[in-house]
Design goal:
Rossmann fold; Arc Repressor Mutant, subunit A; 5-stranded parallel sheet; 2 domains; 4-stranded antiparallel sheet; about 20% strand; single chain; about 45% helix; alpha/beta
Length: about 220
Amino acid sequence: MIFCVEDDSGIRDLMIYTLNASGFEACGFGDASALWDALKTATPELILLDIMLPGEDGITVLKKLRAKQSTADIPVMMASAKGSEYDKVIGLDLGADDYLAKPFGMMEMVSRVKAVLRRAGHQKKRQVLEVDGLELNPSAHTVTSGGQPLQLTLKEFQLLELFMRHPGQVFSREQLLMKVWGSEFIGETRTVDVHIGTLRTKLDTCGEYIHTVRGVGYKMEGKQ
């Protein structure tokens, strides 16, 4: 999912249309307040963030994103009619991953979004994920709890990695089936429940980090 934060509804709608037509999922927000509300329930793969926003401007939003642990690693592309080198440098120095100067072409936007996501994907694959003593190393394909190695099946490992990459995000059973088992899987959502159950057991006390959200699905959070 890509979040587009742009106060001009015409530009925002065109950005969303182009991203969806290019194979991405995208949704838009007119100001920072709407973005913060959305981040309470979902973690996007990338945020397209306009600098000139009503209320909280894009630079302030970027600072807050980078300061919070839950959003610090989300790739951010800044966009603004301000095309000066100074504005570009400020955004990049504060942690933006790329900068689009308006007016920009939609195909240029898509190309640069893909490039940023590729870079982010390579970084994530090397990154060891950690939640309150539970560590998962994607490259080595290992999981430890309190320093002790755990033996997980492939699907259990993939479920755990998905949860740890998106702490606090609720996934429905259907979403978990699609992301872990794939669109060609033929079976019931009960498969997810069974794997979650065995995963919780193997994680021992850390299994408490995987929460059931009644009527929806599952999410992962550390100690409250």
